[in-house]
Amino acid sequence: MGGFGSGRNRQRRDTVDDSLTLSMKDLRRLGFLHGRRSGVVCWNWGDALLARIGVESVMDRRRAYIRLSYAAADRGGRKRSFDYLVQLDGDSCRFGGQQWYFRCPACDRRVRLLHLPEGGDVFACRHCYDLTYESAQTHDARYPSLRRGVSALAHWMTNSRADARAGAPRP
Questions:
Q1: Which value, to the nearest 10 degrees, does the dihedral of the CA atoms of residues 118, 121, 122, 124 take?
Q2: Are residues 148 and 100 in the same domain?
C-alpha cells in the first residue's frame, strides 16, 4: 500500500497569475484589431513597470497577425531579444462584427490568451507551458466528502449542528 512517491504530489505548479498575459480583449481595447497599428503594451504593479513589449498589428482581408518584439532574460540570466509573428484567426459573429483568436506560436491552438511565464521564451498558450489556475490548486477538504452522496451530506450537517450546539468552533 503506497510506496515511495505514492500519494498526492503537493508540488506547486506555475499558474497563469504568475505570468505575463496578453489577451485579445486588451488588444481590442487598445485599438490593435483595426487596420495596421503599432504601439507598446505595458504591465504594471502599482507604480512600477514590470514589462513592456512592442506590438505591431496588421489586419486586412488577406492576413491578420501581430508582431511582438521584446527583450527578456533567459534562465541563465542572459538578455535575449525576441521578434516574431503571431497569426490571428477570426470568426464572423451572428449579429455582425468579428471574434478574434490568437494562433499559439508553439502548438497552433486557437486561444484568447497568450502567456509568458518567468524564464519563458515566447508568448504561448497555457497548455504549452503547463500552466494552471490558482483556484485549481486550492480546495476545501470538506468538498470531496460532500460529493460522495446524500448520506455524507446528512452526516456532515448533523455533526456541524451538534458542534454548534456544544459551542465548538465551526470548521
A1: -60
A2: no
